[in-house]
Design goal:
The protein has one domain. The protein contains 3 helices and 4 strands; from the N terminus they run H-E-H-H-E-E-E. The longest helix has 14 residues, at 3-16. Strands 1-4-3-2 form a 4-stranded mixed beta sheet. The mean pLDDT is 90. It is of the alpha+beta class. The termini are far apart. Strand 2 and strand 3 (79-88) form a beta hairpin. InterPro entries: DUF3768. This is DUF3768 domain-containing protein. It comes from Roseovarius tolerans.
Length: 117
């Protein structure tokens, strides 16, 4: 099996945890919401979290490597919102040398206003 489908599955599983602890998974990481997202109403933040969690519109244009590591949504209050998954080493100081290896990788999912990019 190629590494990209594995990464896509891992990233989808990690993203599906957004805001909810899931037990029995080795997908460790952090969720980061930028100041622009945090400044929105709680209702909008929750709506954005759900949209990011449930995102499944991956195309050649927005996911050319098939990793399911980026998406963009439109939100009534926030406008365009981006989310991105990055791969770090277990200390979160450098990039991961092997993103599909749980022992060597921690994910960071960042949700931001497009204007913060």
């Amino acid at each position: 099996m190629s590494p990209r489908p594995t990464l896509a599955r891992q990233n989808d599983q990690f993203r599906s945890r957004l805001g909810v602890p899931v037990f029995g998974t080795d997908l460790l990481g952090r969720f980061v919401f930028t100041p622009g997202i945090e400044a929105l109403s709680p209702e909008s933040q929750i709506d954005i979290w759900f949209q990011v969690r449930d995102f499944n519109v991956f195309t050649e244009d927005n996911d050319p490597y098939g990793e399911h590591d980026f998406g963009a949504i439109d939100h009534a209050e926030a406008g365009k919102v981006f989310w991105k998954i990055d791969y770090y080493d277990p200390s979160f100081t450098m990039g991961s040398e092997d993103p599909k290896d749980f022992a060597k990788t921690r994910r960071v999912l960042t949700v931001m206003l497009a204007s913060e990019y």
